[in-house]
Amino acid sequence: MVMKMERKFYKTLLEWKEKYIETPLMVVGARQIGKTYIIEEFCKNEFEDYIIINLMGSPSITKIFEEEINFTEKVEKIELELKRKINPEKTVIFIDEIQESEKAITALKFFAESPLPYKIICAGSLLGVKIHRFKSSFPVGKVRIEFMRPMDFEEFLLALDNKMWVDEIKKCYKGMKPISIHDQLMKLYRTYLCVGGMPEAIKKYKQANQDILLWDKSIVSNIIMSYLADMNKYTLTPTESIKIEKVYKAIPIALSKENKKFMYADIEPKAEKKIFETAIDWLLASNMINRCTAVNNIEKPLKAFSQEHIFKLYYNDVGMLTYSLGLDYADILLDKSFITKGALAETYIAQEFTANNIDLYYWNPDTKAEVDFVLSNKDGIIPVEVKSSDNKKSQSLKVYVKKYNPPYSIRVSAKNFGFKNNIKSIPLYAVFCIGAEKSEKTQSIGAENP
């Protein structure tokens, strides 16, 4: 059964077509987030003709890119391999798994500079790592880079045919008015904590008649295994891959603590920054994890006041954290108390914010106060307190408000919408709405390292 999944990234692809089509588009994202699916759909729907080249399965075309011949000859040889002519006026070319060939990435410059109107989209699972370690001349200014993430909660609802509920959430968020289907949406939020945002996991859940007991959670295990396989395939040495795997497996341990700040000791006793820092950089470049950095002062831009040595690390998908922690799905669905409940909520919100291009920062001036997230939008710098239940006690938020007097605060919890005492109460299932507010982060263009 072919299952259509609506992805917000489709709008990014349309924007490229309408405004930047003369510049090759590079879609960067982790494995299994649906890059290939949505780009193929886009090519089929929006162009008269399209060509798909998967370099992982096309060694002959990869070899052509590696040859020391001019650009025109390469195109002619590719046409012979494809047994068809490329019409630059009508045809869009989708090069998948482009990280397999550094020379193919370099060739994007020539597609961009060609007098012919080539239309090129490329994607790859570890492009961030590839760009970070590029040995040749990266086509600076000749490529448009866009980042794609796992499906957020809004896309999860749409996949389950709940568009009316999405519209109602947005309406209630805008007016800060209670929503009548709050309990049903909280159940779906807890389901999302189990299933996560990987398209294949959501598809399997829907095929199981949306019954978590019938859902095959091995799909999440398989994705994690593919991540670990990438750590072995796309690293410089076996020692490096071991370090990366150790960091990845240490993240659930760090998040299980009361103080979720990532410590190198979480990896192994006596672990040091100089040994494992590059492993963290690799995971960040691969988009397998998200990083939330502490700030000690609340002024724009927040990046200027970031404490780079103090940070939290989250998996890019909350379903993968749930699986890695070995949690009982029944405990989550029945909303029972367990020690890592807060870790799931924070990972979920980090995932939602990242999907909506909101930089991840938290306020951590000392050991006595901490606000889970702070975000910069058109209203100023807003503190975001996260509660995994409807518990409203928040001494740290009071300390923050007294010190910085923000225009308002946000409390994300299991409570319904509301606005009282200058605090916006936003239900956990409505965090995707916060992304509609302007953040400091913009889409990366050019050769900036992810």
Pick out its properties.
disordered C terminus, alpha/beta, 450 residues, 14 strands
Low confidence ranges = 438-450
DSSP strand (E) fraction? 15-25%
Structural class: alpha/beta
The beta-strand count equals 14
Strand order of the largest sheet: 2-3-4-1-5
Range of helix content: 40-55%
Report the sheet with the most strands, covering strand number, pairing sense and barrel closure: 5 strands, parallel
Radius of gyration: 23 Å
Number of helices: 17
Global mean pLDDT: 92
* First-residue to last-residue Cα separation: 36 Å
Overall geometric form: globular
Notes on the structure:
There is one protein chain. By secondary structure, the chain is of the alpha/beta class. It folds into two domains: 9-147, Rossmann fold (3-Layer(aba) Sandwich); 165-436, no CATH class. 42% of the residues lie in helices and 17% in strands. The chain has 17 helices and 14 strands. The strands form three sheets. It has a five-stranded parallel β-sheet, covered by helices on one side. A hairpin with a 2-residue loop joins strand 8 and strand 9. Helix 11 packs antiparallel against helix 12 and helix 12 (238-255) crosses helix 13 (273-285). The longest helix is centred in the middle third of the chain and has 18 residues, at 238-255. The two termini are 36 Å apart. The model is unreliable at 438-450 (pLDDT under 50).
